[in-house]
């Protein structure tokens, strides 16, 4: 892998991030399972582990409802493995309550008190003294950007986080944060997580309208082209497995998907030829999309097993060309 340095920081990360929303749910239920998954990622050259305090509050696993399950799984692995210094740890706070059915995802929790509470709990769950990158998981446009940046700067000065960033913010708020932090002499947001993948340009909106898309009226696509100091970390990097499901089961297998639109179906039909040309998997084609963008991208992949991790990491050893892009 060719590693990526975030400008004006001392952070260098792998071109792929390990998404962990299913840690302790679909994998990592035992220490051995967790060690296999995280160990495989490190062995393949990965170092960015992405989580959030809210992962996976909405799940009941084996009859147990647990808050911050993903962070707990990561923390136990860090404690047992002693590999904290080998990873870049990213977690997020401030997400609306997701611990009960019918929770209002529009009721933001981005105040200083909310963020401090989440951060302190995250540090305890993760069994670490600091987070490398700490994110606002959502935005609250009723809170001035200056106040939100000031909260994060306090955490930096306290040594609890090294850098801060955002997720699901629009470009206008990020530009305002950049300008204010520059004025104050602070390092502003170093990264941004938003929804982007090979099928997201034309997809239908998902049911959660608090998600922010790189394409569309968020302004993020142009923002990231113009601002390399704020690294784009796309989530849902493999489009919820849409293209794999289509190639395995046809249109019937994806009929209810938000990605099931003519443009994405047309691209799906091209994928077998791309797989043959580049001697690669469907996963590689879908992640190869990010290697041909006009801005640096570090996509996140939520794996099913260790083989998924190996396959995803192989993407960055393949010399893809622009024909990997859906729009031709």
Short description:
With 328 residues, this protein is of the alpha/beta class. Helices cover 35% and strands 14% of the residues.
CATH homologous superfamily heading = NADP-dependent oxidoreductase domain
Radius of gyration: 19 Å
Structural class: alpha/beta
Overall average pLDDT: 96
Number of strands: 12
Gap from first CA to last CA = 27 Å
Overall 3D shape: globular
DSSP summary: helix tally: 10
Within the CATH hierarchy, at the fold level, what is the topology? TIM Barrel
Question: Can you give a write-up of this model?
Answer:
The protein is of the alpha/beta class and 328 residues long. The protein has a single domain (4-315), classed as TIM Barrel (Alpha-Beta Barrel), CATH 3.20.20.100. 35% of the residues lie in helices and 14% in strands. The protein contains ten helices and twelve strands. An eight-stranded parallel sheet has the order 11-10-9-8-7-4-3-12, with helices on one face. A two-stranded antiparallel ribbon has the order 1-2. Strand 10, helix 6 and strand 11 form a beta-alpha-beta unit. Helix 2 crosses helix 3 (112-126). The longest helix has 17 residues, at 262-278. It is globular and about 55 Å long. The mean pLDDT is 96.
């Amino acid at each position: 892998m060719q590693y990526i340095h975030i400008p004006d920081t001392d952070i260098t990360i792998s071109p792929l991030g390990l998404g962990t929303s299913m840690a302790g749910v679909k994998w990592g239920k035992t220490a051995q399972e967790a060690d296999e998954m995280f160990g495989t990622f490190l062995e393949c050259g990965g170092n960015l582990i992405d989580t959030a305090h809210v992962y996976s509050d909405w799940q009941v696993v084996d009859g147990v409802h647990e808050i911050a399950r993903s962070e707990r799984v990561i923390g136990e692995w860090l404690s047992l493995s002693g590999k904290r210094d080998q990873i870049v740890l990213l977690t997020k706070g401030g997400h609306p309550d997701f611990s009960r059915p019918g929770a209002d995802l529009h009721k933001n929790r981005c105040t200083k008190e909310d963020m401090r509470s989440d951060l302190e709990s995250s540090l305890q769950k993760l069994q670490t003294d600091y987070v490398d990158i700490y994110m606002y998981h959502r935005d609250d446009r009723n809170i001035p950007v200056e106040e939100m940046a000031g909260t994060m700067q306090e955490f930096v000065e306290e040594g609890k986080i090294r850098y801060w960033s955002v997720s699901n913010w629009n470009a206008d708020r990020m530009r305002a944060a950049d300008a204010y932090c520059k004025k104050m002499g602070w390092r502003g947001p170093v990264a941004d997580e938003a929804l982007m993948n090979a099928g997201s340009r034309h997809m239908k909106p998902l049911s959660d309208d608090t998600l922010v898309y790189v394409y569309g009226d968020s302004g993020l696509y142009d923002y990231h082209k113009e601002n390399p100091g704020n690294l784009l970390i796309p989530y849902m990097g493999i489009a919820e497995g849409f293209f794999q499901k289509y190639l395995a089961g046809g249109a019937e297998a994806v009929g209810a998907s938000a990605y099931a639109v003519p443009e994405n179906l047309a691209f799906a039909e091209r994928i077998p030829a791309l797989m043959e040309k580049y001697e690669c998997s469907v996963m590689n084609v879908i992640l190869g999309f990010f290697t041909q963008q006009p801005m640096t991208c570090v996509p996140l992949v939520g794996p099913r097993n260790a083989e998924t991790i190996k396959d995803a990491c192989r993407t960055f050893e393949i010399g893809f060309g622009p024909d990997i892009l859906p729009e031709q």
